[in-house]
């Protein structure tokens, strides 16, 4: 039935490292669906993935171009980073983007892809990033502001839920990502 892991990611640095570690489990043709509210850490995770895959170019949110291709510098798969937020029609529109890369030979990471790109592949890794504190929680147990409040919301720990769907993920131990 695929595999599953839930981990707490305390810092953006650890989120980037999770991306680098996850890259080690990915192979050409993999589809990764990233979900989470704005500022949850989706791009930070994808940046780590890009580093782990050894691709060219700075990984930034592709909001205005919809998709950005990062070719491999190490003979591995390209990283195709898609922001599906503005993709109304889902898959057809994805194909219309005319990406100069073969999706079966790439790792495709889609932000905001729920309900839009699932039909790209029966096998996919869904990564949901949530604020561990439920978003509104602030400060220490006695109500005093926690030190990281000055750093803004991004200092809150995140809960990352990874779910591998399809035969591709049956034998992948996602739990290794939870080990520090």
UniProtKB/TrEMBL annotation:
<keyword id="KW-0963">Cytoplasm</keyword>
<keyword id="KW-0479">Metal-binding</keyword>
<dbReference type="Pfam" id="PF02367">
    <property type="entry name" value="TsaE"/>
</dbReference>
<comment type="similarity">
    <text>Belongs to the TsaE family.</text>
</comment>
<keyword id="KW-0819">tRNA processing</keyword>
<keyword id="KW-0460">Magnesium</keyword>
<comment type="function">
    <text>Required for the formation of a threonylcarbamoyl group on adenosine at position 37 (t(6)A37) in tRNAs that read codons beginning with adenine. Is involved in the transfer of the threonylcarbamoyl moiety of threonylcarbamoyl-AMP (TC-AMP) to the N6 group of A37, together with TsaD and TsaB. TsaE seems to play an indirect role in the t(6)A biosynthesis pathway, possibly in regulating the core enzymatic function of TsaD.</text>
</comment>
<dbReference type="InterPro" id="IPR003442">
    <property type="entry name" value="T6A_TsaE"/>
</dbReference>
<dbReference type="InterPro" id="IPR027417">
    <property type="entry name" value="P-loop_NTPase"/>
</dbReference>
<keyword id="KW-0067">ATP-binding</keyword>
<protein>
    <recommendedName>
        <fullName>tRNA threonylcarbamoyladenosine biosynthesis protein TsaE</fullName>
    </recommendedName>
</protein>
<keyword id="KW-0547">Nucleotide-binding</keyword>
<feature type="region of interest" description="Disordered">
    <location>
        <begin position="132"/>
        <end position="157"/>
    </location>
</feature>
């Amino acid at each position: 039935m695929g595999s599953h892991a839930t981990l707490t990611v305390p810092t953006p640095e650890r989120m980037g490292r999770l991306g680098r570690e996850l890259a080690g489990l990915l192979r050409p043709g993999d589809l990764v669906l990233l979900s989470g509210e704005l500022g949850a850490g989706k791009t930070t995770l994808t940046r780590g993935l890009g580093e782990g895959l050894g691709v060219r170019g700075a990984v930034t949110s592709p909001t205005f171009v919809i998709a950005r291709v990062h070719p491999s510098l190490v003979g591995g798969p390209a990283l195709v980073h898609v922001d599906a937020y503005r993709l109304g029609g889902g898959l057809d529109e994805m194909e219309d983007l005319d990406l100069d890369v073969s999706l079966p030979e790439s790792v495709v990471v889609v932000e905001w892809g729920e309900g839009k790109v699932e039909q790209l592949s029966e096998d996919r890794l869904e990564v949901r990033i949530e604020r561990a504190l439920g978003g509104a929680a602030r400060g220490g147990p006695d109500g005093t502001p926690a030190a990281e409040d000055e750093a803004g919301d991004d200092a809150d720990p995140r809960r990352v839920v990874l779910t591998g769907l399809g035969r591709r993920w049956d034998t992948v131990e996602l739990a290794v990502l939870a080990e520090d």
